[in-house]
Amino acid sequence: MDGAEDDGGTDEAVETRSDVVDTARHGERLDRVLVSIAGEFSRSHLQHLIELGHVRLDGQPAATASRRVKAGQRVELELVPTDESRAFRPQPMALAILYEDEHLLVLDKPAGLVVHPAPGNWSGTLLNGLLAHHEAAATLPRAGIVHRLDKDTSGVMMVGKSLPAVTALVRDIAARDVHRRYLALAHGAVASQRIDAPIGRDPVSRVRMAVVASGKPARTDVECLAQHEGVSALRCTLHTGRTHQIRVHLASRGHALVADAVYGGRPALGMARQALHAVRLELEHPVTRAPLSFGCPPPDDFSTAWRAIAGVTIPLD
């Protein structure tokens, strides 16, 4: 049937998981309870299973993800194979590791690597590589991924390797105790400034975000380090972590990133992908609470373009 959702048919085994709601979770949304049962999958995927009728409360189909559960109710979840569940498979890949211990992994993500499986990219993602890198990843929400870099953004990112670490990292990000800085090349003469503008889905394009009044609060500090031939070399500090935040904030001011076609950027300086690199990550270790700081030199394409605008020195702080 045209447009029908692939639920895996009947030729693949269906795993069923169940749990009884305890008093601590009384009154929680059903989809949040499902995350505790099958945390390796996204909440949107679990919500979709509810819509397809694969979740039951006390033996009866649960109609909505927002339904509040009661202590003592039995929750049953059928993990019917779908594209997303099939994507949760280990695939060995080389990881550029900057730091690793039993709780934390910090790596240099190359441009072109998708972080999490999604339509059009169900394999070959960082998540697949993490599942192959260490066995515990299969037991963690999103294999320990607590933040993302866009496919064509390069640079430093962190991953939790244990549930206590993932929990602490998510908490620290929400509390804005994790500090992230980026280098960017943008069209035009960009003034140093703080951009404080809410970001939400673009009302016209499904692939874009935009500055919209109904969006979530977003703040970016922009420092212009050099300008040459209509391009500005920038250091950007995130105070929030919205999807496409730097790209959207700069484009909203008329300064799209070089080669960022989604937001109106034009190819220049040999860049074939958006000119954005995550250069610095500062945090407290999620378990020991020791301060950690990581600098990550940009790849050759970005380095060459940066030097054409700002000279030889590339700041890593």
TrEMBL record:
The keyword Transmembrane does not apply. GO terms for biological process: enzyme-directed rRNA pseudouridine synthesis. Its EC number is 5.4.99.-. The keyword NADP does not apply. PROSITE patterns: PSI_RLU, S4. Residues 28-92 form the RNA-binding S4 domain. It comes from the Bacteria. It holds the Pfam family PseudoU_synth_2. It is an enzyme of class 5 (isomerase). Residues 1-13 have a biased composition (Acidic residues). One of its GO terms (molecular function) is 23S rRNA pseudouridine(1911/1915/1917) synthase activity. The active site is at residue 150. Residues 1-22 are annotated as: Disordered. It catalyses: a uridine in RNA = a pseudouridine in RNA; uridine(1911/1915/1917) in 23S rRNA = pseudouridine(1911/1915/1917) in 23S rRNA. Gene3D superfamilies: Pseudouridine synthase, RNA-binding S4 domain. This is Pseudouridine synthase. It comes from Rubrivivax gelatinosus.
